[in-house]
Amino acid sequence: MRGRNTVETTAGSRSRMRERPPGQVKIDSKTFPVTDIGESGVVIDEYTGDLIAKQRVYFDLILPVGEKDEAFRCEASILKLEKGRMVAKFLDLRADARRVIRHIVAHRNAVISAPVPRAG
């Protein structure tokens, strides 16, 4: 039975999670690939905007959900900004975004193995 709050996973979506960044961040109409993500925050290695450390920022966090991407409005505080790397801490992350992030983190490094033949 599928619950309303579950994130469906297919072989295609699991493969897509391994083949591309765990998401994207859209700030001021510019989109940046996410290098790392967790429930506490996000890391972007190719940031080229004009934000500064300790600044509060609103952005769209674009994450893979099933076979499509979904945008979640987020608020974060910039912890560190150095040589194009931005580290931001989420402020009051929405429950639906948190659930998708948990799913991504849990499946990001999952290895899909072939079924083991049964003896018999």
* Annotated CATH architecture: Beta Barrel
CATH homologous superfamily designation: predicted glycosyltransferase like domains
Shape type: globular
> What is the residue-mean pLDDT, rounded to a whole number?
82
CATH topology: Thrombin, subunit H
Return the domain count. Answer: 1
Percentage of β-strand residues: 35-45%
Cα-atom radius of gyration = 16 Å
CATH class value: Mainly Beta
Stretches where pLDDT is under 50 for at least 5 consecutive residues are: 1-9, 111-115
Estimate percent helicity. 10-25%
Number of helices: 2
Indicate the topology.
Layout (H helix, E strand, L loop, with lengths): L10 H9 L4 E4 L2 E4 L2 E2 L3 E4 L11 E10 L2 E15 L2 E6 L4 H14 L12
Antiparallel strand pairs: 1-2, 1-5, 3-4, 4-7, 5-6, 6-7
Features:
about 120 residues; alpha+beta; Thrombin, subunit H; seven-stranded antiparallel β-sheet; 2 helices; about 40% strand; globular; disordered N terminus
Textual characterization of the structure:
- Mean pLDDT is 82; it is low at 1-9 and 111-115.
- The chain has a single domain (11-108), classed as predicted glycosyltransferase like domains (Thrombin, subunit H, Beta Barrel), CATH 2.40.10.220.
- The protein has 120 residues and is an alpha+beta fold.
- It is 19% helix and 38% strand.
